[in-house]
Amino acid sequence: MASVAFEHLTFTYPLAETSALRDVSLTVREGEFLLLCGVSGCGKTTLLRHLKTALTPHGARQGRVLLDGEALDTWDERAQAQRIGFVLQQPEDQIVTDKVWHELAFGLENLGADERTIQLRVGEMASFFGIQTWFDRETDTLSGGQKQLLNLAAVMAMHPDVLVLDEPTGQLDPIAAAEFLRAVQRLNRELGVTVVLSEHRLEDALAMADRAAVLEDGRLVALGTPEEAARALLAQASPFFAAMPAPVRLWGALGAEGPCPLDVRAGRALLRRVHPAGRSPSVEPDPEGAPLLTLREVWFRYERSAPDVLRGLDLTVHTGEIFAIVGGNGSGKSTVLAVLSGLQRPYRGKVQRGSATVAALAQDPRAMFWRDTVRAELEDAARALHLSSPEADARIADAAESMALTALLERNPFDLSGGEQQRAALAKLLIRRPDVLLLDEPTKGMDAAFRASLGALLQALCARGTAVVLVSHDIAFCARFARRAALLFDGRLLAEGPARAFFAGNHFYTTAANRMARPWLPDAILCEEVIDACRSAQTGAGERSSPPR
Questions:
Q1: Among 10, 276, 336, 424, which residue has the fewest nearby CB atoms (within 10 Å)?
Q2: Domain 4-240 and domain 291-504 have a common topology
Q3: Residue 182 contacts by C-beta under 8 Å, 6 or more apart in sequence?
């Protein structure tokens, strides 16, 4: 086993005016599960990449990184590969071979392991992670969740002492994300592997961790058990407290008395003591706008001999609405967007777009970048529209401000964090001012504060008549901002309807707030609604217990 440590680590990217990391000192103890969190761009990825010299970004560094008390840069790459496993945010970035079993064996082959050792470890990892049924499959046929689980299994085949994961669930649906994190927890609990996990989805991860470390503007602002970290953020009035799981936010809003509930079960125990009163606010659905895009009986497959991905799909997109599509990895959500945008053509059915202009955000925003700076990317987007210089400058400034990119305009887009890349790609689309905006996982890598800002921006666009279709694993975001929602399953949209009714009627594809408060408030889908009901109950109880005057 191993421990890792950062000693007074400060790091600055080339040409950057401020440091990405500022005097960070942190020790991860042997066998510990440490959760690293913070808003997008706070330095999480930069810090984690210092745990592999091959991944360490270029720039000016002060301080040291230690493995078992020795400077990491004194360990050769072979030793680092054996002792420190790293799982990246993008599943496709890490897969290098054509078949699952080749991928499992690849790292061991590079380390020069003998054939018997390779066979034993590959078989052992396939069994541990339950991937025997797709052992012989082509890697490009796997879903995002399967690819990420394969990456984890391939890393663990080398028996590392330390496992580093950089937002590994960013592209996974809620069920696949929970399964992935449980696999990581098993490695920590059953094998004693030291785990350092960076994650935006805290609903599951926070309760699993032994300690949580919170970064803010490159500084370490909270460190301790999950409850200690939550109390520190609450005491500091940190904006990151809004990213805490729903039970933690409820606890904080009700006075932070007693133990901090970290999961739905503990949150329900708190609600039993409070007895929330009242009903969730009923929201009348907005009147439907005019149809902009329509799919009728659409059938699609990628190859003639391949199975159908879309099967008689019907869909209408109206002006001024946010329509959310959820579903499992590999269910065809991105394919729906590709057909809506015209990138893919169905072999049966009708697609009606009329004169609507459509802009689409790819699942991997890096596919939209080819310039050296964010500013140049935005200038390219404006130039393609043949705008006058004043109009181009105005649109660039407006898009940069909307996406909080003003301070990042001179940065290389490939040096940005995942959330910042999403914002830069979105800014390029906003310059075009399309009638229909198609978003594939738009909140991936974004912190809670910017997700709220993005939602408000999308609602403002819809108020001007823009239609937004988003496919997302971010259930909380969809529940808060979508007007309509649907589940994609077996190539068709199921249970399509008003977002509140849709999410309140689901068991897994719903919010943590709904799962927690369902026995008392079955229609509540937002944490704020649960908090308001609890406060009403406390006020009522106080009034009832007050003596008459």
A1: 10
A2: yes
A3: none
Confidence of residue 420 (pLDDT cuts 50, 70, 90): confident
pLDDT exceeds 80 at position 226: yes
Whether the per-residue pLDDT at 284 is higher than 60: the answer is: no
Q: What is the domain class of 291-504 according to CATH? A: alpha beta
CB atoms within 10 A of CB 90: 21
User: Is residue 70 classed as helix, strand or coil in its secondary structure?
Assistant: strand
Distance CA 345, CA 358 (A): 15
Q: Give the whole-angstrom CA distance, residue 319 versus residue 305.
A: 37
**Tens of pLDDT, residues 19-53:** 999 999 999 999 999 999 998 888 999 999 999 98
Q: What is the mean pLDDT of the chain?
A: 89
Residue 427 CA to chain centroid, in angstroms? 19
The answer for 386, left when phi > 0, alpha when psi is -120 to 50, beta otherwise, is left
**Cα gap 142→122, rounded to integer Å:** 18
* 119, pLDDT greater than 50: yes
Query: Who contacts 331 (Cβ-Cβ below 8 Å, separation ≥6)?
Result: 488, 489
Give domain limits for the chain: 4-240, 245-274+513-549, 291-504
| Closest listed residue to residue 488, CA positions, set 327, 354, 375 | 327
Task: Please give the model's pTM, rounded to 2 decimal places.
Answer: 0.83
Q: Please tell me the predicted confidence (pLDDT) of residue 546.
A: 40
**Could you tell me which residues are beta bridge partners of residue 527?**
none
CATH homologous superfamily for 4-240? P-loop containing nucleotide triphosphate hydrolases (3.40.50.300)
Distance CA 329, CA 148 (A): 11
